[in-house]
Amino acid sequence: MRQIIPVSTIMSKNLIALNRTDDLERAELLFKRYGIRHIPVVTGDTIIGMLSYTDLLRISFADAVDEDESEVDTLVYNMFTIDQVMVKNVTTVSSNTSIKEVAQILATKEFHALPVVDDGILVGIVTTTDLINYLLKQL
């Protein structure tokens, strides 16, 4: 019999998060500094949206900036707020949701990360990369 393994075993718990009052320049710097592609947007410990690096690319030329550069062109970023660019009404899972169920959600939706929320509090994030790494360990 197969064991049901919870997503809490593979999710990232050391979260990088943004507040709705942060600007998009800060978001880009966090994406590049930590080599991540998804950042939850929170008010306190409550998730209110999700910002992906792809969201930034849609409104800017962020990929044209050298990753080692600390200066970014903020002209486009100053035209938008995080609230305007982030995805709202985010699909979430709890930490005891099975890895299989998370894989099914990510396989059928058009996003690549799920916030993990317990009792209304953001406790982690799981991405398609987390799933692939888990599967590689199983082989």
From TrEMBL:
Gene3D superfamilies: CBS-domain. Coiled coil: none annotated. Pfam families: CBS (PF00571). Residues 11-67, 86-139 form the CBS domain. InterPro entries: CBS_dom, CBS_dom_sf, Diverse_CBS-Domain. Keywords: CBS domain. SMART domains: CBS. SUPFAM superfamilies: CBS-domain pair. Transmembrane segments: none annotated. This is CBS domain-containing protein.
